[in-house]
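1st attempt posting a full record on here, be nice pls
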Amino acid sequence: MATIVSFHAHPDDESIGTGGTLRRAADEGHRVVLVFATRGERGEPTPGVLRDGEALWERRMAETFESARLLGAQRVEFLGYVDSGMMGEPTNEAPYSFWTADVEHAANRLAAILREESADLLTIYDDFGGYGHPDHIQVHRVGMRAAGVAGTPRVLQGTMNQDHIRRLAEMVRELTEEPPEEPEEEQIFGKPEAMITHAVDVADLLEVKRASMRAHESQIGPDSWFLSMDDESFALAFGTEWFIEVG
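the predicted structure (as C-alpha cells):
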C-alpha cells in the first residue's frame, strides 16, 4: 500500500479538488495525509456561522478535521503560515503570509513530513494554482521543491480542465438559449485538456465529496453554488478530478 500526502493552501481546498481521489485511495487501503499551508484566516465566513468570540481560523481547523474523517485521511498537519488573501490585495505582503514565505524554508518543512511518512505520492496544484490565487501558486512552488528535497517519487498537480469548463458553459447556453456573452476579460481556470495526464472518475463518491464540502460550513453554506446545484449538474462539474503528473 502507498502513502499519499495531499498539500493544500486552505481548509476546504482538499474537498473541492481532490476529495473523491483521496477517499478512493483511503478505501483501497492507502494512507492519506493532509497538509495545509494556512488555516484560511482571510476567508469570508458564512453569515451567522461563527459563535460569539470564535475566530474563523479555529472554526476552519475544526471543519478540516471533520472533512479529513469523511475522506479517510489518517493525519492532518498545518504548516502555520497566514492566509495571503486574493492576488493583489495588501494582505499578500502581510507578516507571515504564505505568499511571502521563503520557498526553501517552507519546502524543508513539508519535506520533513514527506520523509517521515515515506510518501510515495504528493499532490499539489498546477503552476497557476488553478485560478491564480497566490497561496495556490505558492503550494505549487513549495511542493515541487519539497518533493525534490525529500525524494518523493511521484507528484500530481491538481488542476481544472479548461476544455471541460468551456463545454459545460456551452451546454448551459444551449439549455437556456442565451446568447454567449463577451466578457471584458476572460477568467482563466486550470490547464488545457492536452496537458492533463490523469482524469479520475469519482462519480460514485459524489455524496462523500458533498459531505466533505458541507463540513466546511463556514465557507460553503447550504445556499452556496457548490451545494445548491442539482445532482446531475454537480456530477458534471465535480465527477472528475484532474491532475498533471510531472517527472
